[in-house]
Specification:
The protein has a domain of 105 residues: Immunoglobulin-like. The chain is 10% helix and 42% strand. It contains one helix and eleven strands, in the order H-E-E-E-E-E-E-E-E-E-E-E.
Length: 156
């Protein structure tokens, strides 16, 4: 019995002397990439008075959202290359556009790309304004003049 007691005591001492004194726990979560754009037109954006001169007329607010660690880019293009075009003809009416106060070149199919290289999360509203020189109705062909401006956001 004494030998059994000594063996049990040695076994207990041996296992106790190898017990860990520290331990670790990994805590981890994943944040998915979120990139989106939404365009909210101003009340008068679809009822422009083409007979009156306009300077920096507010036509929309664009909300940019990005949490991309590489930043993002916003590309702005115009279906009619920066002109309002008569929907049932080829007559055009020129205008200029500003995005968040900066002029945007719309004269090519590539449009303008604005790059934000920041790795921080962004949720920002940007203003869209247009300017044009009005033309009297008798100098233009009657009809509806329109253009579609597209805002595209993507990670860098």
């Amino acid at each position: 019995m004494k030998k059994l007691f000594i063996a049990a005591t040695l076994l207990t001492l041996t296992s106790t002397s190898f017990a860990a004194t520290t331990g670790t726990l990994l805590l981890q979560g994943v944040v998915a990439q979120k990139i989106s754009v939404s365009v909210t037109p101003a009340a008068g954006a679809s009822t422009l008075d083409l007979a009156s001169n306009q300077t920096d007329l507010s036509v929309a607010t664009v909300n940019e959202i990005s949490n991309s660690k590489t930043g993002y880019k916003m590309t702005i293009t115009s279906a009619n290359l920066g002109k309002l075009k008569r929907t049932d003809g080829s007559d055009v009416f020129s205008y200029s556009l500003k995005y968040n106060g900066s002029a945007v070149a719309l004269g090519t199919t590539a449009g303008t790309t604005i790059t934000n290289s920041s790795a921080s999360a962004v949720n920002a509203n940007k203003s869209v304004t247009i300017s044009y020189t009005g033309a009297a109705a008798e100098t233009m062909v009657e009809g509806t003049y329109a253009d579609t401006v597209t805002f595209t956001i993507a990670a860098n």
